[in-house]
Write a structure and sequence with these properties.
2-methylcitrate dehydratase PrpD; 60s Ribosomal Protein L30, Chain: A; homodimer; two-stranded antiparallel ribbon; globular; 431 residues; alpha+beta; 2 domains; four-stranded mixed β-sheet
Chain lengths: 431, 431
């Protein structure tokens, strides 16, 4: 049938047949995304984008993280995408190697606010857009990612376009043109990692989505099949595309979305969860630790002698000591540079052994701790294992509290109530 | 030294060492670009973008073709880029296969107006930005163009960034970041040709330029070498880049810019110019014609029986007859569908012979006409030959008159006077 037609079918999925469990995860992502946005509003990048929004001004359509008042939806989407990705603490989908909420939710929320729609419609549009982004990622990957494109930005722009277009009630032909316009508009490179360009990529995606959908709604035309046609987005941006992958898996892949609960490298999270699952009484008696992890992480997060707080985030030894000491690894502010000088952590890290193990996936960790009695207690964790909603909710709210205080639990309550997208204006603006 | 450093050197060229002949051509291009923008303001694409500018509103920084009032520079750049390319009648640089003015001038003019700079500074910034775009095109091409990227949009975005950044007085380090941001922002595909997506690509480039320069000015950072670094723009967007090409040629390549003087396929222009060079007395006595042209044009503009006005633009036979009859081939409105039914043109076309000739470049035409006396008179033309400024000026003004009437010659006079960039607001808005 072709990727474009499959995409248009997916984009038009009636709300009443969207699966409840995927919608529940989309609602979780809305909460987590909003928390990341509020927590990121004080970053230097955010200040620069606030200046741009204020300098341009314009119609008061949508709210911006950390700024009172309203801004054009296209601008709000750009600022909010970048601000919410500034801490790199937002959700990830491993199947397509990308962050979904930061590219797609800013577009959905901005259009939902501009058109005064309900939060539930925003969540539905996000879910459909995010699913498009994941599946397009499967078509593009790995030739796309390996060539140097940033999936969050590129596949994300198509997700944002579909989410925005759905909320604008585009016809099938308008949606085809919106996607075709996105094909000539989407961009984003991985070589920006480590700079403000990385979070900005998410804002670019979100803004492109609002723009392409709006233009298609008002009659703009584009290539018939901008996606998989000759010299379309897929042909120009991937060396080994897999068009059959778009529709191969049934259901909604979005359900596998993963949240970060620790403000450090994702490669350390399985170890941290494994240690946290030990009884508290045992954690306080650990004298040494042996960890097995996927070998790819050895080059990334096994820093033996971190020099800064940032480097601590990439150090199994330090992080293990912090967990056993009961420190809040979920609070970004914990990672001060002084931590790298902490004598007790340094001492404990010298008794941490890290071993590469090909039999473990990159979402798994296993090993054992040695108690003061000499007893060895095994631990393990697989991030791929689904977390029951009650535990997930508790963890998301705990993370939110660590990041933005009591506004976190209050937001959870607000979202459970539903209501209009404009009802979030106060929270987003931080007013 | 590396492309990035060469680019930054070029971007910082002091105004007083810019070559006068290149500046003269940049001034010609400003005139031609403004005329194309005014003439394109009534196109359907323009109406859609006008709606977007009006819906968003915002700071009155810069003027938009066909709309009274002021708009944010970033928005004005997008609308003006697209509107001025809507008729596809703007200038071309054959060395890098792209249109320069429609991507770079909208950014330069918008920033020049926003910051209340002089027209001469706008022209200087344009020249430097356009030169960057041409040379980056040489680095990217042909692997870039052949893969499916639209040079006008991609290389054009870097040209727009440099022009905007120069007018914003970016430091060398800020310019480096601006170019790095453009690396993750630039986009544009050839598969949009034939749709509104093509002219929009020029607007995307211009808008990206204003945006990236503004963000760098306000402290945004990006990859150190977003251009030629690992997984930078060049590596991700070209299969066979030629980094040495950036600085290989001395001087300013921009001087070779070409203008369209006939609102038909560029492949027919050499024939038209050759026929126009015949004495008027002979033109009225032509009974038959034999044309030699580069074989690549035979598949493009030798339509033997055009059915519409658009197809007449691709018909040597019809166009030859029109020239000999003294019709205004430079006026887009001449190409009505009824022309395809014109019995006299049809009859003359039957006496036109077109022959492929590998010895002619794709900018050349040669042949002979047969007069009513039976005498054969040869003609030929090479578009690559420079046109003396007085003749170029006359041709540009004649083209302008055909497109926008007396506002054309008046604009030439205005530009000769210089003055502030804001002085063009009335002409651009069409007020």
């Amino acid at each position: 049938m072709g990727v474009m037609e499959e995409l248009l079918d997916l984009a038009a999925t009636p709300a009443d047949v969207l699966p409840q469990d995927a919608l529940r995860m989309a609602q979780n992502s809305l909460f987590d995304w909003l928390v990341c946005g509020r927590a990121g509003q004080g970053e230097p990048l955010s200040g620069i984008l606030h200046q741009m929004a204020q300098a341009e001004g314009g119609s008061a359509e949508a709210s911006v993280f950390g700024l009172p008042g309203g801004y054009p939806a296209r601008m709000a989407a750009m600022v909010n995408g970048a601000v919410s990705h500034a801490l790199d603490y937002d959700d990830t989908h491993f199947a397509h190697i990308g962050h979904l909420s930061v590219g797609v939710y800013p577009a959905a929320l901005a259009v939902g606010q501009a058109r005064d729609l309900s939060l539930s419609e925003v969540v539905e549009a996000f879910l459909v857009g995010a699913e498009v982004a994941i599946r397009l990622g499967l078509v593009l990957t790995p030739g796309h990612y390996n060539r140097g494109f940033h999936m969050t930005a590129t596949a994300g722009a198509f997700g944002a376009t579909v989410a925005a277009g759905r909320l604008m009630r585009l016809t099938r032909e308008q949606m085809r043109h919106a996607v075709g316009l996105c094909a000539t508009r989407a961009s984003g490179l991985k070589s920006q990692f480590g700079t403000m360009g990385k979070p900005w990529n998410a804002g670019i995606a979100a803004s492109a989505g609002v723009e392409c959908a709006w233009l298609a709604l008002h009659g703009m035309t584009s290539a018939e099949d901008g996606l998989c046609g000759p010299q379309g987005f897929v042909a120009t941006h991937s060396d080994a595309p897999d068009e059959a992958a778009f529709g191969a898996a049934p259901g909604f892949l979005f359900g596998d979305i993963k949240y970060k609960f620790h403000a450090c490298c994702h490669g350390t999270h399985a170890m941290i969860e494994g240690l946290l699952a030990l009884p508290g009484e045992q954690r306080s008696r650990v004298k040494a630790l042996t960890l097995r992890t996927n070998p790819r992480w050895l080059r990334v997060c096994d820093k033996k002698a971190p020099q800064t707080g940032l480097e601590v985030k990439f150090s199994y030894g330090w992080l293990a000591g912090m967990v056993l000491r009961g420190m809040a690894t979920g609070d970004d502010r914990v990672y001060a540079d002084a931590l790298a000088e902490d004598a007790a952590l340094k001492d404990f890290a010298s008794r941490v052994t890290v071993i590469g193990d090909e039999t473990l996936s990159d979402m798994m960790a296993a090993g054992f701790v040695v108690l003061d009695s000499g007893e060895k207690v095994p631990f393990s964790h697989d991030l791929a294992a689904p977390i029951p909603q009650d535990r997930l909710q508790a963890a998301l709210v705990r993370k939110a509290e660590a990041m933005i205080g009591q506004a976190g639990p209050a937001l959870w309550h607000t979202l459970e109530q539903g209501g209009p997208a404009r009802g979030l204006a106060g929270f987003v603006s931080g007013a």
